[in-house]
Every structure is written in C-alpha cells, then in structure tokens.
Specification:
The strands form 3 sheets. Strands 3-5-6-13-8-11 form a 6-stranded antiparallel sheet. A 5-stranded antiparallel sheet has the order 4-7-12-9-10, with no helix packed on it. The protein is 19% helix and 34% strand. Strand 9 and strand 10 form a beta hairpin. The chain is built from 3 helices and 13 strands, in the order αβββββαββββββββα. The protein is globular. The N terminus is likely disordered. The longest helix has 22 residues. It is an alpha+beta fold.
Length: 226
C-alpha cells in the first residue's frame, strides 16, 4: 500500500510541474495586423490599426484576415479603442479590445497547446449596451469550458468584469479556444479583452507533502532492493 501511495505522490508531483503556461497569442489584441481593415460589406473598411487609438477620425475597424493568433468567421474581428465608446469605456488592458458583433454576430478562435495540469482561463467582458438580449457571448475551450456569459451580471453596460474558469488537463494536445456573440445580431454586442490561460500551482504545503511521500517511497524501494 505504501508503494502505491508513494507512486501516486510521485506522479502528482511531476504532473504538477509538467503543466506549462499556455500561450494565448495576442490575448489583449495589441498586435498590428499590418494591413488596413477589410471590413464586412463595406462596414468598418479602410482603417489603419496603429492610427485607431489617437488619430482624428476612425477609431475602430473590422479585419477578416491578417490578425495575429486569432481566426474568425466571415464576419471578421472588430477592433475598438478608448475613442470608440469613450470616455465611458477604455480597454481593460493596452490600447485595443474587440466587439463580438461586427455587422452581425461573429466568432473568433485559436488553438492553444496544453500539457497535463490545472489551468485558469481568464478574460475581461463588458456589455456594450443596456440590453439583456444583445450582449451575451459564449466561451469554449475544447471539452474543458463551455459557458454563456450574460449581460445580466451586475457590472452594467460599458463596465469590465473579469471571468475565471479553472480546469484540469489529463493529456497533452492542441485545444481550440473560442468566443462567439450569443445575443441579438445587430452590430451591438459583447466586448472582450485581456484573454489569458495560466497554470494553477499546487499549494506549497501539498507539494511538500507529496514530495515527502514520493521520497519515502523511493527510499523504501532502495532498502527493499538492498
């Protein structure tokens, strides 16, 4: 029984260290696509990314290709800045955020690599308008996370709230992370920023206990062999 417990402890200790931070590419939507916005049916076309936060005139644009890390459906990705809805709303991180309802409801996604371990998915969400039917978004991460974020939460329109989801991974592989508009398709939807996946470390006391159990098991096997 002692050998089984120590073997389990060894697996848990090494498993805890096997988890590595999953890199969400362009999680705060700050990387310049390097091309002007392509728009959707003319809507949101012709913007220069680097000029959105500060130049007079256009403060947002819709990209259907060229965005680092993220892919989208045919409705593209709408980037906004503090000038778009300001002064009521500024990005929660950096200079840009996205709206998940460009001209119609839209979806963005990317693949992330996960190793065994416990992780936390976090992101900042804000509803654009005071409407319980317009701002909902869904978040999916493979089979680990599948949630609908509703604008009925207490933050109110144009106010950021951070959402967190813990999940456990048992085997390595690529997993699709996706966000999609879930409300009325009317160009006024949920806003998203600061997407991140981080490792959730084991508590220090638990790591010490498991390490001690693993060490005891190794010592016991060595004495048995002798």
């Amino acid at each position: 029984m002692g050998l089984k417990v120590s073997a389990l402890a060894t697996a848990l200790v090494f498993g805890a260290h096997a988890a590595t931070a999953a890199v969400v590419t362009n999680g705060s939507f700050e990387l310049d696509p390097g091309v002007i916005s392509q728009g959707v049916g003319g809507h949101g076309r012709g913007a220069v990314f680097s000029e959105l936060p500060e130049k007079e005139g256009r403060s947002w644009g819709i990209w259907t290709s060229g965005v680092a890390g993220w892919s989208s459906d045919a409705n593209g990705i709408e980037f906004q800045t503090s000038r778009t809805l300001g002064p009521q709303l500024t990005p929660s991180d950096g200079n840009y955020y996205v709206e998940l309802d460009t001209r119609r409801n839209s979806r963005i996604f990317q693949n992330v690599n996960l190793n065994p371990g416990r992780y936390n998915l976090s992101f900042d969400y804000a509803p654009r308008v005071n409407s319980n039917t317009s701002n909902d978004i869904s978040v999916t991460l493979g089979s680990y996370v599948d949630e609908l974020v509703s604008s009925s939460y207490s933050g109110g329109a144009r106010s950021w709230t951070t959402f967190n989801y813990n999940f456990d991974v048992s085997s390595s592989g690529l997993v699709e992370l996706g966000f999609a508009a879930g409300g009325k398709s009317n160009s006024l939807g949920g806003l998203l920023d600061n997407v991140d996946i981080s490792v959730v470390p084991l508590p220090g006391g638990l790591v010490f206990l498991l390490s001690a159990l693993a060490g005891f098991g190794i010592l016991r096997r060595s004495r048995s062999a002798a």
